[in-house]
Amino acid sequence: MDRAGVGKVCLALPGVTLDHPFGDDHDAYKVGGKMFVMVGGGGSISFKVSDIAYEVLTESGHARPAPYMARNKWVNLPQIDDWADDELAEHLVIAHGIVAAKLTRKARAALGL
Description:
alpha+beta, 38% helix, six-stranded antiparallel sheet, Aspartate Aminotransferase, domain 1, 6 strands
């Protein structure tokens, strides 16, 4: 998967917006104003995972703790294409679900979630 592929997967999810808070070379995908995926200018990708997935992915070496976001259970892949497309897409959908579930009931209803 490439940067455009990540965008296609993320923007197909309900209530998702694309923002560039760190400059045009970084894509931040948000749901309800909360970021769940970040694509860096150098081709890296970081995303939110569950507590269990964080432990499994970082301990097995499949991903590394995301810089500045590891305490919030985010992982990082140095290159977007480090994983198979379907595996990465599944994690992006899960990241969306984790963040969306933490939104208020009112915010979820306004987004159609």
